[in-house]
Amino acid sequence: MTARSIQDANRAPTTERAVSPSVWSQLWSRNAGGYLFLLPWFLGFFGLTLGPMISSLYLSFTNFDLLTAPDWVGPANYVRIFTADPKFSTSMRVTLFFVVFSVPLKLAFALGVALLLNRGMKGLPLYRAVFYLPSLLGASVAIAVLWRQLFAGDGVVNDALAIFGIKGPAWISNPNYSLWTLVVLSVWQFGSPMIIFLAGLRQIPVDMYEAASLDGASKWRQFWKITLPLLTPVVFFNFIIQTIEAFKSFTPAFIISGGTGNPINSTLFYTLYLYQEAFSFFRMGYASALAWILLAIVGFFTAFSFLTSKYWVHYDD
Questions:
Q1: Which of 73-110 are b and which e, b meaning 16 or more Cβ less than 10 Å from the residue's Cβ?
Q2: Under 8 Å CB-to-CB from 221, ≥6 apart: which residues?
Q3: How far apart are CA 286 and CA 70, in angstroms?
Q4: What is the Cα–Cα distance from 183 to 190, expressed in whole angstroms?
Q5: Could you tell me if 181 and 256 are in contact, meaning their C-beta atoms sit under 8 angstroms apart?
Q6: Does 35 lie in the same domain as 158?
Q7: Structural domain harbouring 32
Q8: DSSP class of 22
Q9: Can you list the alpha helix ranges (DSSP code H) found in the chain?
Q10: Rounded CA gap, 283 and 41, in Å?
């Protein structure tokens, strides 16, 4: 082989690499259709989710009232929240009370109904639809208005109690009971976790119950030793979802209290207080700081739940 042919052979791969399309163009030519289908999602994510989040993070370090340009104040909003805002601590106390009582009661009630439906009764699809309906309607304004009428001083609940000679209180206007009416409304919306519990119960092998029955285990013992341990992944999922939803609860408190959180701030949910700061007093920078604190609180509860799940959630492995 001559020196010229060797030189041409060494040059050929370089020329081929130079004219070959780039990796990015190859990826685009292969996946252009998929990217075009994802374009609406990208627009929504960057324009309606990520963009506003970044803007609110910036505004949380400013004074902003929608009418003038944001004025940078640094961490002053956060300092005020934790040191000089009594309504912040009040709203946190009300929200934590709501979360601590509404979430376990809702999950317990949903699991109980799911256990009943799992027994193979006739018309199961109808019952599932009927029990799921409150979850579709419970967060609506109409249901909140109806709930306010039910628990008013002269409402249906007190009329029913009067039949038995019991004089009911003014549930909505009494600070000792007003928050509990919202807890009851939350428990009434048990349909979504019930459907998930029912799907989990259908995955438990029947032969495990048969073996336990042959060993003399009662129904109660089967529930604690078989049903609940095998259902813990579903319980964990429902717990995370319902806890986040409880922290975000807004509409019932807003409608029942007329947007004030009364009586005596007993229904002042954190989200309602955030709404007041943003749209009643137009302190958008302060409201943005409240929103990011709520995000941090929800993130902390979620991370803590995942960290502790290894001690009580049992998977197949």
A1: beeebbeebeeebeebebbbebbeebbebbbeebbeeb
A2: 212
A3: 11
A4: 12
A5: yes
A6: no
A7: 14-43
A8: P
A9: 3-19, 23-44, 51-59, 76-83, 86-117, 124-137, 141-150, 156-163, 178-188, 191-201, 206-214, 219-222, 228-248, 251-257, 270-275, 284-308
A10: 31
18/99 same-domain check = no
pTM of the model: 0.85
CATH number at residue 193: 1.10.3720.10
Low-confidence ranges of the chain (pLDDT < 70): 1-21, 138-139, 316-317
CA distance 270 to 94: 8
Q: Is 1 domain-assigned?
A: no
**Chain centre to alpha carbon of residue 55:** 23
- 71-72 and 62-63 strand pairing: antiparallel
Quote the CA–CA distance of 121 and 5 in Å, as a whole number: 86
- The 10s digit of each residue's pLDDT in 51-60 is 999 999 999 9
Q: What is the pLDDT at residue 21?
A: 56
- For residues 297 and 31, give the distance between their C-alpha atoms in angstroms, rounded to a whole number: 39
Rounded CA-CA distance 60/57 in Å is 5
Instruction: Residue 289: name the closest of 92, 58, 86 by CA.
Output: 58
Mean pLDDT of the chain: 87
Amino acid 29 reads S
